[in-house]
Design a protein that fits this description.
Its main location: membrane. It is a multi-pass membrane protein. Keywords: Membrane, Transmembrane, Transmembrane helix. InterPro entries: CAAD_dom, CURT1. With about 170 residues, the protein is mainly alpha-helical. Among the domains are: about 40 residues; about 45 residues. It is about 60% helix and about 0% strand. It is built from 6 helices and no strands.
Amino acid sequence: MATTASTSMAATAVFMPCRLPTSAVTPRCSVLPNLPPPRVSTTPSFSASLKQISEPRRISLFQVKASSSEESSPPVDAGEIFSDLKEKWDALENKSTVILYGGGAIVAVWLSSIVVGAVNSVPLLPKILELVGLGYTGWFVYRYLLFKQSRKELATDIEALKKKIAGTE
């Protein structure tokens, strides 16, 4: 038994990149801990292990909020969604334009993912762009969000842009 343990440790030491100590202590260079042998048992041992856990040690990771059926929204029917979409599609006059814009958007997303992947593969460029983004974010917060007067100015600029896009200006 002792010889098999030392040979398995030696085999682990050969495969793992670590230095062996020069002392007489058996080296443990394994990254993974030694696992106990698998138990062939049924649910009674599982329920026994649950009984061993004390109540204060149990930590709930999820919190569930109970609500009455009056507060919750009614379930969404898939047929209703498809019928609404069909009505909206039938109401469109320029269907070819919508298809063209949708296809263009898909191609644009695909091309931008290729460009982002290429930029991400350049060694220092992602970190430089991250610094540029942080710098711009800091400037934007200082310029538009820090003071009350500049927040009002930003709100008026956004409203003017909304009117310009909507064509009501």
